[in-house]
Specification:
Length: 138
């Protein structure tokens, strides 16, 4: 059965939570599904997709757009499903949706220790930019 990509539905929560636990085991509490998913559903819920194989969540991606720049977040593919093009399909789905909103540039952040993921995005045409990423928890 082929993998289907569609918008997140509340019934996907447990599957996405399991996916993120498998893919992002060291994420801080504010990035966990119990926090991040309700926040996403409250703002631009149409920019959240899941990939399903036999009704099982095997991938996810969230995007955001502020009218100036787009962002990709929580791009995840179960380890056993990686290297078959699913991550690329998820990214291209989000990019197309952002472009349809008028977005002309997409940003994302990768931990500097995660060179394999940085290489994945480089193969998709993303490039490292001379920036300092700064943040502040509110």
């Amino acid at each position: 059965m082929p993998i289907a990509i569609r918008r997140f539905d509340s019934g996907d929560f447990a599957g996405v939570e399991a996916l993120w636990n498998a893919c992002f085991p060291d994420d801080p509490p504010h990035n966990r599904a119990a926090v991040a998913i309700p926040q996403k559903l409250a703002f631009q819920p149409d920019l959240f997709w899941v990939a399903l194989l036999d009704d099982r969540v095997v991938g996810s991606i969230m995007a955001g757009y502020d009218g100036h720049r787009g962002w990709l977040y929580s791009v995840a593919v179960l380890p056993g499903e990686q290297r078959h093009g699913l991550g690329t399909q998820l990214v291209r789905t989000a990019e197309a949706a952002l472009q349809s909103l008028g977005c002309s540039k997409v940003n994302l952040q990768v931990r500097d220790t995660n060179r394999a993921v940085a290489a994945f995005y480089a193969r998709l045409g993303y490039a490292e930019e001379p920036r300092i990423s700064m943040g502040r928890r509110l």
